[in-house]
Amino acid sequence: MHPVLFEIGDFFTVYSYGFFIVIGAIAGITYVTYQTRKHYNTNFDTINSLFLLLLISAIVGGKVFLFFENPSYYADNFSKLLTGKGFVFYGSLLFCIPAMLYFFKKKGLPVLPMLDIMAITTCIVHFFGRIGCFMAGCCHGIEWHGPLAVTFTDPACLAPLNTPLHPTQLYSASMIGFIGLILLILKNKKSFDGQIFISYLILYAIGRSIIEIFRGDISRGYVIEGWVSHSQFISFLVISASVYFYLKLRKSQTG
């Protein structure tokens, strides 16, 4: 749509994707700060350290998973991994989980309740990130001439130009927003610690698997060509592991 939000002469450019990521990060930090101060009396430095660790983990994880989408290409073009373009959300998420576990244990924070807080935080940040994707044209859909189709015309967009496409970025943003609302409702009704976080993983993995059907950025690759994408395969693993831990935690905490 509009990859560049605005420019000031030839010296300063604000890109839409980066702008929405920053807005999401600010909103996420605000939510975590409020929740952790309310329940665990944390200070702002602790939250800043947490987000710095998660930022590094997300970048590394996103790039590692990007490499494994096309190892032969990136082995020969390693510099392509070092650009600001190209991240795999699942890589970022799966690298951030052990980073959070390490941080919470080190700081003496309750792990499972903190993961529940971070589930809602992830929805907040990710929602704005997907809006940024829409503005930049990345994570675009397949060609479609339906009533909700969008057409990208800005040459700076990463989507195919002048072709009606499924607005998969908006599908994702809507899905993430809906999941966030479900988690907020569950927040006051949960029966065990960790329930919100695991519910997030299950709901997101299911939704992501469905949206993958309409994705047109085929560079993400397939496990079974034309049938099961890398993200769908990872979603299956995430759902399987999440259901196992959901049942295990519920049994251990509720008897």
From TrEMBL:
Binding site for a 1,2-diacyl-sn-glycero-3-phospho-(1'-sn-glycerol): R130
Subcellular location: Cell membrane
EC numbers for this chain: 2.5.1.145
This protein's record includes keyword Cell membrane: yes
Pfam family of the protein (one): LGT
The keyword Transmembrane helix belongs to this UniProt entry's keyword annotation: yes
Record protein name field: Phosphatidylglycerol--prolipoprotein diacylglyceryl transferase
Natural source organism: Fulvivirga lutea
Upper classification of the organism: Bacteria, Pseudomonadati, Bacteroidota, Cytophagia, Cytophagales
